[in-house]
Design goal:
It is a single chain. This protein is an alpha/beta fold. The protein is built from eleven helices and eight strands. It has one domain (about 10-255): Aldolase class I (TIM Barrel, Alpha-Beta Barrel). It has helices at about 20-30, 50-60, 85-90, 100-105, 110-120, 135-140, 145-160, 185-200, 205-210, 220-225, 245-255, and strands spanning about 10-15, 40-45, 65, 95, 125-130, 165-170, 210-215, 235. The radius of gyration is 17 Å and the shape is globular. The protein binds 1,3-dihydroxyacetonephosphate. The site of 1,3-dihydroxyacetonephosphate (13P) has 14 residues, from strand 8.
């Protein structure tokens, strides 16, 4: 279990799923189940077009709102993009940056991810910075190198103080949507690596940094992952679309 100084966080990344009615229904069910009322923090990250519906439904609840991505630029000719300012204005507190699907499918570089992280900070959004290695990278023993490269790109651009109001999510690409979960020991090893890198720069910030695990987390395996000392909650994909599963995962993060 992580120390009391780090309040566990469970964030649901809905990815590109569901209608507005589905979003409304899911949020109503989460609220009815008391999600967010425990000692851990709960956040949902719906698609952009459902943010307003989600914000209205979440009013008066203890569940926070986040977005799945943000543009690195402030405004202008960036057709199809959504700025961090717009997300803050829409009621978001969190924004995911550098998800592996964005890196792999939309060729987002470490540099672009760093600029998105900075954009989030300029608008008082808490970035959830995703890092993670592919299966090929793990098999050729490059996990450490890849994680540190992705982390260092943001550390170099934003500086360690920015991590005082950020969250990092370790999401091994081979565990996302595959049903293959990193073992608690595998997750712990990388989480300790991440915290260690931040500690080399600032031990106090490292001690309070929340590092989430993501990749096929479900109600059945959440507790053993969250029991690891450097695992401070989860970034949940598929299981966040089911109210009962997500509620159970949030409960597993409560102390
Ligand atoms: P799954 O939980 O569906 O594996 O997705 C994890 C993820 O990518 C969350 O951002």
């Amino acid at each position: 279990m992580n120390p009391a100084s780090r309040r566990p966080l469970v964030a649901g990344n809905w990815k590109m799923h569901g209608s507005r009615a589905d979003a409304a229904c899911l949020i109503n069910e989460l609220v009815a189940r008391g999600v967010g009322t425990g000692s851990s923090e709960a956040v949902v990250c719906p698609p952009f077009v459902h943010l307003e519906e989600a914000r209205r439904r979440l009013e008066g609840s203890r569940i926070g709102l986040g977005a799945q991505d943000a543009c690195a630029e402030e405004q202008g000719g960036y057709t199809g993009e959504v700025s961090a300012a717009m997300l803050a204005d829409a009621g978001c507190r969190y924004v995911i940056v550098g998800h592996s699907e964005r890196r792999a499918l939309y060729a987002e570089s470490d540099d672009l991810v760093a600029r998105k992280f900075l954009a989030a900070g300029r608008h008082a959004l808490v970035p959830i910075l995703c890092v993670g290695e592919s299966l090929a990278e793990r098999e050729r023993d490059a996990t450490r190198t890849v994680i540190l490269r992705q982390l260092d790109a943001v550390l170099g651009a934003a500086g360690v103080p920015a991590f005082g109001r950020a969250v990092v999510a370790y999401e091994p690409v081979w565990a996302i949507g595959t049903g293959l979960t990193a073992s608690p020991a595998q997750a712990q090893e990388v989480h300790a690596l991440i915290r260690g890198r931040i500690a080399e720069n600032d031990a106090t910030i490292a001690a309070s940094l929340r590092v989430l695990y993501g990749g096929s987390v479900k109600a059945a395996n959440a507790a053993e992952l969250f029991a690891m000392p450097d695992v401070d909650g989860g970034l949940i994909g598929g299981a966040s679309l089911k109210a009962d599963e997500f509620a159970a995962i949030c409960a597993a993060a409560d102390r």
